[in-house]
Structures are given as C-alpha cells and as structure tokens.
UniProtKB/TrEMBL annotation, chain A:
Subcellular compartments: Membrane
InterPro entries found in the cross-reference section: ABC/ECF_trnsptr_transmembrane (IPR003339)
Ranges annotated as spanning the membrane: 30-56, 63-87, 114-135, 248-265
Topology class, membrane: Multi-pass membrane protein
Keyword terms: Membrane, Transmembrane, Transmembrane helix
Main location: membrane
Protein's recorded name: Energy-coupling factor transporter transmembrane protein EcfT
Originating organism: Agromyces soli
From TrEMBL, chain B:
Keyword Transcription regulation: no
Keywords from the UniProt entry: ATP-binding, Nucleotide-binding, Transport
Organism annotation: Agromyces soli
Family, per entry: Belongs to the ABC transporter superfamily.
Name of this chain's protein: ATP-binding cassette domain-containing protein
Amino acid sequence: MSALGETTVAHGGPLRSLNALAKLAGPVPVMIALVFTRGVPLPLAFAVFAALVLLVGARLGAGWVLVILLGVPALAAVLGASFGIWVDQATLPADAAGSQLVLAELGDWRFTGAMYLVGFATALRIAAIILLAFVSGLTTTGAELVRALVQQLRVPYRLGYTALAAMRFVPRFGHELEVIRAARRVRGVDRDRGPIAWLRGTVGLAVPLLASAIRHAERVALAMDARAFGAHDSRTERTISRWRRRDTVFVLGFWLVSAVLWWAVETAVA
Amino acid sequence: MPDAPLLQLEGVRIRHEGAERATPDGVDLVVRPGEVVLLLGPSGCGKSTLALALNGLVPHSVPAELDGRVLVGGLDTREHRVGELAERVAMVFQDPDAQVVTNTLLDEVCFGPENLRLPVAEVLERAERALKLVGLWERRADDPARLSGGGRQRLAIAAALAMGSPVLVLDEPTANLDPAGIDEVYAVLRELASDRDHAIVLVEHNLDAAADLVDRVVVLDADGRLVADGPTREVLTGRADELAALGVWLPVSTLAALRLRETGVAIEPLPITPAELGAALDAAPTLPAPREAAPAPVEPGSPAVPPLVSAHGLSVRRGGRRGPLVVHEVELEVPAGDFLAVVGVNGAGKSSLLQALAGVLAPAAGRIEAAGIDPARADAATRSRAIGYVFQNPEHQFVAGTVAGELEQALALQGAPEAKRAASVASMLERFGLAEAATRHPFLLSGGQKRRLSVGTALIAGAPLLVLDEPTFGQDRERAGELVALLRGLNDAGTTVIAATHDLQLVADHASRVAVMAEGRLLGVGPTAEVLAGPLIEQAGLRHPPLARATRGLANHPEWRAVTRWAQLPAPRGEA
C-alpha cells in the first residue's frame, strides 16, 4: 500500500519518524509467535494493542481509522463464521464453551457456538497479524524500507533499488491485464466454465502478459544501465536512513510490552 | 582541445544475436561538441542499434556482435563499462514508461548522479538545473505516473541532462507521443540545440518536427550502410530524390515542393518546413490550380446511405461502475462505407468511444446500434460477425499458438464446419501476405505482420465494420503507411472503417470524415477537408498537418488555402 509514491497512508505521527526496520523488528517476532497460539484472548489482546499503537502513533485519515476500528473486526467476525463451518464437532470436547448454543441448523448438521469460537480464534489471529503488519505498512514508504535495508542491513543496493523499480510495474500490469481480458472477451475465448477452462484461460492470459513484462523489463534495465546504475560499488544516498536511540527504544519497548501483555493474558486465562 | 571529437565511429558493424546480416554495416562517423546530428534511414537499417552502441549498451547489455571501434571521448566502448561511458553519453529512449525507476520527479532526476557517487549538494544542484530546463521543477514532488506522455519524456531528458554528459543521444523520443507531447519535447530540444552546450544525436522519423533544429543529417540505407553525411539543407534538399528512393521519409514540405517542381513551378531552394513552403508558394507569381479534393463518398443531401453506426447520448465510464465518466453524451452517425478518423490528444476519450462502439466496454448511458446489433448486448459470435475490433497492441488479442490458428479460432466461434474453415483461412492468409508465416507463433511475427494478422482476425467472420484503436501508434512512417494502404483497400472494397489516430497527415490523405474529440466530448464531425480547414483541430489542442500549415496562411493564392491532402497537389505534367 505504500510501495508507490513518497507518501504513506499515515499523514504523520511518531511512527512516521522511526526507522523502517524498527517498525518491522518490533512487530515481526510477535506476528510469528501469534501464528502458533490457540484461543481467543491472546490474538484479541494483540489486535487491540496493535490498533492502539497505530491510532496513537500515526496520524491516519478517517477512512483508515474506520478500517482499523470496524473493518478489521468485521472481517474477523465474518472469517470466524466461514472458518467455523468447517470445524468437526466431534473433535471438540463435549463441555467446550458454547457447545449447547446452536447458531444454525441444517438437517442433522448444527453450527454451534463452540465451532464459531474455534473459527473466530483463527480469524482473530489473522486480524491481529494484519494490524501488526499495518504498524509498518501504513507508516513506511517502499523507498524508506529499501534505504534502511541498504544502509543499515547492508543489503546490496543493486538488489534494493531494482526491486523498487520493479514495484512500478505493478499498476502497469494491472492495466495491461484489464486490456488483455477485454481482448479475450472480444475474441470470444474463456467462455467455458470449470477448472480446466479456468486453467487454460489463465495460461492464455499469461502469455501476452509475460511477453510484455519481459520486454518492459529489458527496456527498464537498459534505461537504468544508461544512467550508470550498478557502475560503482556504492551510490550516493541523498537521504540518510538513521538508526537513532528512539528506534532502539521503540523495538525494546515493543518487545517488553508484548512480553508483559502475553504473560498477563496467559495468567489471567489460566 | 575544444574540437576533439566526442564520438568517433570507425567501420562499425553490428550483428544482433541470431540475425543474418549486420545493420549498421560499416559506419564511420565523428560528432564534435555542439553539433546537432539527425540519424535517418528506412526501417530495419539499424539506426536504433547504432544509437545503443554510442554508450556501450551494444555490446555490453544487448546481445550483439560489434565490429569496428566506437570511441567515446577517446575511450573504446568495448573496454569500458556502460557505467563509465554514461558520464560521457546520456541516452533518452522511445518508451517514456520504461525509463521511470523512482517515485518522484526529483528522485528520478537524482537517480543518475547518485549512481555516479556525486556529493549530495551537487546531485541536487544538477537535478534542479535539469528540471528547470525542461519546465518541471514546480512538479518535482509529483509521482512521474501523473505526468502526460510528453511530460514523462521531458523528465527522461532532464534525467539524461543530469548525468552531465557532453553528448545526448535520443532514440525516437517522440514515437510514442501525441502531437501535444511531440511539441513539448521539441520545444525542449530546440532550446538545448540552441544552447550548444551538448552535442545531440537524434534518431527520428518525424522529420517535419526535427528538420529545422538539426545542423547535420546522416543517412543509412536499408542495408545499414552510410550513404549521406552533411549539412541538413544540403542533404535533405540536394539529395532529396535519392533519399526518397531509399525509403527515407522526407519532410512533407520538401516532398510537396518536389511535386510542384515536376509541374513546372520553380521552387528554389527546396523548403524543409511548412513555413518555408508557405513562403515559397506565396513568392511564386502563379501557381497551377490545385486539384479538387476527392469527392466525399456520401454527397451532402443524399438520403440514400443509412447510418451503419449510430450512437445517441453515449456516455462511457472507465474502471467500472463508479469510475470517472470519460465520454460525455456523444451523438454520432457513421454512414456505411465511411472512413472515419477519430482524432484528439491523449486522454480525450477516443479509445473509450471506440471501445463502446465495438462492444468492448458497456456504455454508462445512451444507445448504440452498430451494423444492426447492440454491441453491448450481443454475444461474442454475433458481435464478431458485425464488428471487427483491433486493439492498439495486437499482441493483446492473440489467443492461439499459430497464425492460422488465430484465424481459425474466429471461424470456430461462428460454428463454421472444419472443412470450410481451412479454405477461408487460406484465402485470408493469402490476402494479408501471411501465407508463409501460417505455422509460426503470432508473437514471433514482425510488427507489420502482427498488425496485419490482427486486422485479418477481426475481419474473417465477415464483419462489415472495422474499428481500430490507434493502429499507427509507435510505428514508423513506413509501417504506418503500409497499414493505412491496407485500410484504404478494405474501405474501397466496402468495409466501413473507424480509426483513432494521432497522425493528421495520414488523416488528411485518407479519411473521408474526421471526428474531433476533446475532454471526452465530441467537438464535431465532418468531411476531412472541412474539419481541417475549420477551427476544431486547434480547439482540440491538436496541430494541423504539415501541408495544411503551409497553405492555410497563404496571402497570394487563396484557392490554395484549402489544400490539405497530397491528392490535391497538381498532377505532374504528362499525367492527369
């Protein structure tokens, strides 16, 4: 969402001024840990935590505030139901919370509160991970991330800036895909339904798209070569990406708060 | 040594990997500081390849074999990397989209100097100077994607200037631009050329725009051999016949003057710009009467021909139901047998209008009837029997693995029996000169063949109406001419043709009527001669084609003011 342009979703706020890597280093371990959790309380706590960090730390437009406060919870609720439907009642303990509550019934099959809770837990994990990803995603530009990777992590600049240039292909290909779809409609192909027809249609789309992508990439590469990209071992960094004390404080603070939160939730539930 | 050569080519031959012959083939060339050189030649002569050799992209980045020597400021390009040579030769390419690598105009112009490891202060200073020179400094914080095509090409020029190189090479910098963009780019180039700070090597087909700013013309023949090298006027006018025979497109004004000479009008010296031609015509004491404009196929007042296409209150949105309106309430009727050109700057709504007429886009409002059907409602088979649509890039519409398969798919859609299909496919292949390529993959055809195949697939189901979206875009004059001749032939045989295009001289020479669009609205439709003589072209932000520009302002020969098309020039003696 921030790959293009030098603007981010956030208009300002303390998170904007942090190093791009700090905003990744803080949340990423928590995101990984959340993948392995079960139950509702932990992901719920971290979803709320991440939302608070975002709302306090970044100046967001009304649209994005609504996404965080209503959109993501609504997504979790809906995803919870659709995951819950696939839960096998037999695998749940008979006394699981909500197993007496029947939400829907279709012949023999019952959708119980317990099933919904299992699905909801999974959905909440996804919601929490999305919100944690927003902490950097909504407040960092692609260029800032590349600069931090090149300057702090010593990632080769040829790689970083080429990736940045490649990001500019995305909208172009979106547009191109639209044209190719329209052209195939006009030619009257891709009318059959079913998986095989779908596969054939996708391959049919891929050929012209790939041909054009390769040609475009070659041209961009020539244009970059012609402007001395890759000629030297380093290049001038006009904007210096700094790792300041506040970045260290943010990362350590984020970890510390997360650990305390984790411990508090675990003990409260037990 | 102020006059040491910046570029020195000795016996340069370049053979692309897999190619049989070398083009260019044995070119010697010296470019000195401040020179503005135009490199000309017919398609396939290797002039773009030669341009790529000037900063070492050939042989370092492009798989090709280089014989002879290219010296850049005394450095042999074979022994130095492109990165080093980039400080001495900067390059601007044809496709403005494929040169942007960063997210703001300022970053874009800084990109090159940053790669050269210049100190930040100097990077910024160069960027500011370059952006100011092309008139984009105020927009430095914008995303390049928000610029027009002409704006992006000016940005590419600024990015090249910021390299600080004494030589600037431009490879067909205006081939992908609309007339307004071409003017923008040439305004910048004219300024650069008059500053004399840079040597400029320009590869360009559009001689009408380039002729008055270059001092020297270098011409390659079809085999890639150097056939002329000298001052612009000397080469373009002194050897005009020879160049025309080589397939090089001379400026329209020069060609028109040559034709007039054949009819006995002494025009000396030969003009190379419309203004010069106009002045020469005015200076002539008498001119033969121009020929009548070709009679319009539909005579005014004849009710005989009912419209083949009619659109009423047509509005079109882009990008779905909530997208912006890009065509507003168009009223248009196209009689059967018409050759209608739709003109307008980029973003005027030409493509959207055409796509709605052909059923590619559903209209947001209004009624359309085309060749007896409602194109938005009809199924693909019915539609392709009525309307053939050709996309701007023919590759987008190829769906089969062979050329014959492409044509056959269109027949299979109609449910034609297999035995019958083969005969139709064979005759279509023959008609479009593709018989030898029948079993090849469509993507492996040449540009001209691809275009012909796309027209063939659009017509094989028997559609009486052919709609083309900028069929000449990004092509050189020779290919554009071939295509227009093909359309001319189809139109003469009865196919109704609607084509969007930027090339107003082609419009003047071939279209029977012109529709002018600006900002999504149809400014007007009328017979070509009337539209070109009226104010609509300028209202739409377009420029008159070269011949019209020369004749519009004539003071002494009023009967010549309406001369806009080639066919109106008097016939040479002994013809007519």
